[in-house]
Design a protein that fits this description.
By secondary structure, this protein is of the alpha+beta class. It has five helices and six strands, in the order H-H-E-H-E-E-H-E-H-E-E. It has a six-stranded mixed β-sheet, sandwiched between helices. The longest helix is centred in the middle third of the chain and has 14 residues. It comes from Dichomitus squalens. Keywords: Acyltransferase, Transferase.
Length: 179
Amino acid sequence: MTSEELRELTASEPLTLEEEYEMQRKWQEDEDKLTFILLSGMSFDAKEDDQKVTPGRLEGLPMIGDVNLFLKGVPDEEDFEVEVEIMVAEPAYRRRGVAHTALQLILSYATDPSSPKPLPVPKDRFVARIGERNEASIRLFEKLGFSVTKRVAVFEEVELRFTDASKVWKKGDVKLLDG
């Protein structure tokens, strides 16, 4: 990640390309991480009968970001938490509802009783840690039912936890890849 602005917004350290690849491999293999890659919009021909998502249809679509869950601790223990992160790397896709939709989908998936183990998780276990100057992200999480519960001056960040039990998140359709 070469963008200084993006590193500040995501509280990320500069990594070499090799370190980036190693981190991606680790995230793919670790059972305590769930990452979905955000691709730019996909359009299907409305006249097509076959609307299946295939690797061929995804190939070539630009990656614009990712959304992540990091499970920390043992699910049945009191200190268990699920850290939620979102990154929309491409500036052209920011402030267009992409992050809001992606977060709703991953949060609804993570709390759905039909999701595979180690999911589902209770809503009150979700936490987001955001740089205190990243006001847009703080507002985004507040719209999703999170509230600032702690300020950590030494890291210049705020901690938000899910607190709005009445909040309902958008659900997505499950689409299996063919091929």
